[in-house]
Design brief:
Number of strands: 13
CATH class of one domain: Alpha Beta
Structural class: alpha+beta
CATH superfamily of one domain: Ribonuclease H-like superfamily/Ribonuclease H
Radius of gyration: 28 Å
Distance between the termini: 52 Å
Number of helices: 17
CATH architecture of one domain: 2-Layer Sandwich
Length: 445
Amino acid sequence: MMGQQLRTDSLFYYFRLEDQIPEDHLLQLIERYVDFSFVRERLKSFYSANGRPSIDPEVLLRLLLVGYLYGITSERRLLEEVRMHLAYRWFTRLGFDQEIPDHSTFSKNRHGRFRQSGVFREVFEEIVRRCLEAGLVKGQNLAADGTMVGANARRQSRVPREQLKEAAQASRTVREYLAELEQANPVSDPEKVSTTDPDAVLATKGGGTPLMAYYDNYLIDTASRVILEVEATPALSRQEMVAARRMIERVEKLGLRPESLGADKAYGSGEFLAWLLARGVQPHLPVIDRRHQTGGRFTRDQFRYEPAENVFYCPEGKALRYRGQHRSMHGSSYCSTAAQCHGCPQKQRCTPTAYRKLFIHWYEPAREVARALVGTPPYEHSRRTRYKLEALFAELKQHLRLQRVRLRRLWNVAEQFLLAATAQNLKRLVRFLAQQQRSPGLSTA
């Protein structure tokens, strides 16, 4: 006999929220292994001792983490989901008898005490420390890269830089930006600036359609795929190396001493290579090198250098003498003379101009070390494991749905990137700890 389920609305229900959440649910694992109570202690000095009690800052953090863990990018929608989802309510400690905060609460706290305290970075670094304590992070072989994330601004919002003062009369964002120009500012070169988000720049990657964007830079431990550092920068290629240096300096403060860094050719400048070697880090990355782009003519390797004279000699024994430095290119130039090259039997194979020039990079010894590492087993291992960065960026955009930032200005974008990286690390940490508990002695990343 076919049954029929009729809707019956009881006046009262009695059950525990925790009993409805499976033991292996991600939020159950986070609750079991990670304690966020340090957030209240860190923010205590930013609250008054008098007045009406505010919303617990740990609750606000948990709400934000739910949004990043499950790719809920809108704070309005996040609160609607928390209202209906049992697991979200339980994790955020908002029972059925408690009111869900208004979405404006996030903005007030983000622009106030959260930013002043730097709590989002502290939460990120605390999770990294716990990954280290758990033995998840090895910290020997690292990899760095950046991915382009769209800004919350349109191309049409850009105006010529000389029109910014006029635009500032109608835009508070532009007024703040112009005030910041008196200090250090990462975006000072573009001829046009967005009046919506002045820190974003028009950029393209891989030949795609140009868009206003930022770079989300990651430094990861390749053994575990844990994000050790994250840095937000405008989408300028030269900012990637700047971000890499900052990130490496910060992980060293955690007590890590990396042995190698894997990266793509965008990081292969001589200055950056020398900086890595000075810190004892092997650069497993291609060198930015144009020494063999000579159109089939003599390469620099075919010229003999005499250090005592500071002179290069060509294959015909003619001297190329030091002519000066090029500070913007970080190198020195050496030239022969037109008289020396005139009538030389090898001139056709040497240069199409009246005389031969050589450019010698200041950091040539570091570049040579990096070239010598190419093809070695450690280098090949770093090259193969760099794909893990791309997997993390794919997770960031597809699962956390951060193809485009929701907030504007560099500091707001940095907070979004920190929370996203924290969510990614939390997943790896709690699953590692759960696996360790099920199989003592078994290590897995």
